[in-house]
Amino acid sequence: MSEKKGLFSKVGKTRIVPIGLKILIIFITIILLSNFATNFLSVQLSKRQIINLNNTIMVEQLKELYTNATNQFQIYNYSDDKEGSQEALEKVAKSGFSNKNSVALGVMPDGSIIFVARNNIFTDWSFFTDEEKLNKLNEDYKNDIKEGSITFNHKDGEYFGVYKFQTDWGYYLIRAEKRSDLDANTRSVLLYTLLIIVILTIAFVIIGWLILRHEFRPVTMITKDLYEMQQHKQLELIDLSHAKNDDITYLAASFNSLSSSVNNLLGTFQKFVPKDVVAKAYNDQGIGLEGSQRELAMLFSDIKSFTYRTETLGNDIIDVLNVHYNRVIHNVHENHGVVGSIIGDAILAVYGTLESNRSKSYNAILAAWDITHATAALRETMKLRRVEIEKKRKLTESEEKIFIAVSLDVGVGIDGGNVFYGNIGSNEHMANTVIGDNVNSASRLEGLTRIYHLPVIVSEYIKDEVLAETARFKFYEIDTVQVKGKTQGKKIYFPFDTNEMDSTLLAKYDLFEEGLQAYYSGDWKTARKNFKNSELPELTEVFMERMGNKSAPEGWNGIWAMTTK
Fold first, then answer.
1. One digit per residue, pLDDT tens: the chain, 565 residues?
2. DSSP for residue 234
3. Staple 336 to which of 155, 356, 397, 420, CB 3.0 to 4.6 Å?
């Protein structure tokens, strides 16, 4: 029972001091100091940026460009190579560019452009389109004003800069920047200022923390315990042995009375269901039989030659699977995916249910390559172990089989689209699942990795979504496949990672694609030649077997019909 006395209250005989009152006075002072310092620095940095921009872009570079134009005119008089002189002038002008749309122009009084140096090759500078500004330049020239600042409009936006009339060549030299680039630079300054603000804020927070450390150390310990519980989704008891007699300690004691009975249930629950379901249950305090149609990406990964490995390792295959899944599940979670199900040696992961700054398809491909690399690293570890043993003795026949069995290799298939995602079952027992043709398709794409000897195969849906976001992956078409039970062919692709894979392979896959197009069109002779020259024997083997030494059959449409699932 608590009783009130003035600004304070009591729990029994213990007086509860409002901790908010103490913190409020201290942090009001800190916030005022932080705002004053950061705003002052923001103003000073903005002024300095503007001054540097004016001095550097509008004066120095034009002066250097003017000097080089004079020199090139003298060279032109000697060599009579006007085009060479203009090209040299363009090269010198471009060397000083720092922005995407930086430009230097040689504009005749009639608006024709004699030379242009630019970073953005897609901008058309065949003519000076701002007639009003051109007339102003000519009028100023008549009044003996041959240089100054200029702002003009072009087809792709507004430009600003400086100009000077080049007497030798008889045109205006203009050095300009696009207004939007200046805005981008301003944003950079603002971001830099924000960084300073963050650093200063952290510094002031540290100062405040040092002041409060002795007085409120128990509060920090309680807050830390609560934060760790929230992050790990697991309730524990808060250590109150060093807590003081304030309202925070009273709340912490109340919390401890509830956490023990919940902890075991929550710990078990989060090991058996996906992360998004755990989060929903944690936030909504319950889950039910519900689901909806959603646009998701499905990743299916399976261990190759699993039957042989099981026969060789027996019950020890469980230990190998656990080592494998420990890495695979980490790769799935690290790329914002959830594990939909584990079926023996196969795993189904779902992307698009968790928040991420990348698309679901991009995350799925990143996870696929992480899984492939992790499995390759495990094989490499086993190879090194084998080398160490063989330095001492030769492997026995049984050891040779074991080494082959534990050297896991996986295939990964990815597809995406509209599927049902949610909970099915009954109020007594339910399971989280994903259902749809695209789920089955991901499994079939994984099976095709064995036929085409590729680690990862994706659908056209995945390709289109990733290419709309990034150019990191180059997607090579592998084949057009009609799966069993379907009436239409489906293109399949190999996602080549340009950041990680050997760039010398690009030419080989390019040649393979040329062969594939010839294969589609029925020109099997050319296809066989290109497949052979691509030097990708494992990938092209299936096509060479299909074609043999024959010509394309009558009515050939380029689609391979699968006879099995």
1. 444 444 455 545 666 555 655 665 666 667 766 665 666 566 556 645 654 565 566 677 778 888 888 888 888 888 888 888 888 888 887 777 777 888 888 888 998 888 888 888 888 888 888 989 989 989 998 999 988 888 889 888 888 888 889 888 888 988 888 888 777 766 666 677 667 766 766 776 666 656 666 666 666 666 666 666 666 655 667 666 666 666 666 666 666 666 666 666 665 656 555 555 555 555 555 555 566 789 999 999 988 776 666 666 677 767 777 777 788 888 999 999 988 888 877 889 999 988 899 999 999 999 999 999 988 888 887 788 877 877 888 877 777 777 776 767 789 999 999 998 877 766 666 677 888 888 989 999 999 999 999 999 999 999 999 999 999 999 999 999 887 666 688 999 999 999 988 888 999 999 999 999 999 999 999 999 999 999 999 999 999 998 888 888 888 888 887 766 5
2. -
3. 356
Name the DSSP class of 56.
I
Q: Residues 148, 152, 158, CA angle at the centre, nearest 5°?
A: 130
Here the tokens at position 38 are 């950061």
Q: What are phi and psi of 230, to 5 degrees?
A: -65, -40
- Residue 247 identity (one-letter amino acid): D
Structure tokens at 130: 């701002």
Dihedral of CA 21/23/24/29: which sign? positive
Q: Which residue has the tokens 């009954």?
A: 426
DSSP E strand stretches across 192-345: 291-303, 337-343
Nearest C-alpha neighbor of 496 from the set 365, 302, 350: 365
The CA-based angle 38-40-46, given to 5 degrees, is 100
Question: Are the C-beta atoms of 238 and 255 separated by less than 8 Å?
Answer: yes
Q: Scan for tokens 């160490």, then name that residue.
A: 388
H-run or E-run covering 442: helix 437-452
Q: Exposed, middle or buried, 288 (CB in 10 Å: 0-12/13-18/19+)?
A: exposed
Read off the amino acid at residue 250: Y
Return the structure tokens found at 1.
């029972």
What's the CA gap between 276 and 355, in Å, rounded?
Answer: 10
What residue has token string 């090209």?
87
* Sign of the dihedral through C-alpha 149, 154, 159, 161: negative
CB count in 10 Å sphere of residue 27: 16
pTM of the model: 0.54
Query: In 10 A of CB 76, how many CB atoms?
Result: 19
Whether 250 contacts 264, CB under 8 Å = no
Say how many C-beta atoms besides its own lie within 10 A of residue 529's C-beta: 15
